Please model this.
Amino acid sequence: MNYLEELKLKQARSNQLVNSALELHAKGHEFAKLCLFCKFTFPKILNNCPYCHNGLNENIRLTDIYTHKLASRYWQLGFADKSLKAIKTVDYMLDINDRGEM
Model:
């Protein structure tokens, strides 16, 4: 994978992570959980991340302040890189190849 392909993949994953938080905020959720493994945001009523099934998470408050410039903050914190590494681990455990096939 060349640099541009890798950058596009990181940007796409970053968008998915940001959208997971913004969608909950738009639906009126005030509190949510952030998976510490794959960085996906999910409703607080769930114990494990619905994306990677990991139980390690952090409670977050989805305020306007938190969601303001969320994409920039997630990018600076390297959430896309960390999440892509987690996805590879999950895919390996599920025996999914690069094309998403089992």
Remarks:
- The longest strand covers residues 31-35.
